[in-house]
Design brief:
mainly beta; 11 strands; four-stranded antiparallel β-sheet
């Protein structure tokens, strides 16, 4: 299955109101489930051994606007003064080096150019992402352990 086909399937499932769908082909097993908060989750299954290559499936929920602690505690000002820290690659976004560690940065933290702000896992390699600007973190735009696309905004930074 191609990524577009998987996305189309997820869109169909979200519009249909189904809570769970399981698909099994020669290439892969795909299980899509909704949790109680009606947020689509992806669960990766081991690919079936075959002559054709297996398709990698994201293991977490797609990115969505968050309403959790990652948002700014003050009212949101126009973002035209903010600098965007963007993802330099496709992968999985992690806010900390491991699950037991605190996040590299949080809302309100002062950061310097070259300071690590997150990790993006791509093809089993963990890439430390450094800030290209100095300033204050205003908003974290991606949830921890979520898939990110190339050039997707990860953080908003107030450079003043």
């Amino acid at each position: 299955m191609k990524t577009k086909e998987i996305r189309d399937l997820i869109d169909f499932i979200s519009k249909s109101g189904l809570n769970e769908v399981n698909i099994e082909t020669e290439e892969l097993k795909l299980s899509v489930k909704r949790d109680a908060e009606v947020q689509t989750k992806f669960v990766e299954s081991a690919p079936v051994v075959s002559q054709t290559p297996a398709v990698s499936v994201p293991t977490q929920a797609p990115t969505a606007p968050t309403t959790e602690a990652s948002e700014s505690p003050k009212p949101q000002e126009p973002s035209n003064n903010y600098v965007e820290v963007k993802s330099p690659m496709i992968g999985t976004f992690y806010r900390s080096a491991n699950p037991d560690s605190p996040p590299f940065v949080a809302v309100g933290d002062k950061i310097e150019q070259g300071q690590p702000v997150c990790i993006i896992e791509a093809m089993k390699l963990f890439n430390e992402i450094e800030s290209e600007v100095s300033g204050t973190i205003v908003k974290v735009m991606v949830e921890n352990a979520s898939p990110v696309e190339f050039d997707q905004v990860l953080f908003l930074v107030d450079p003043s």
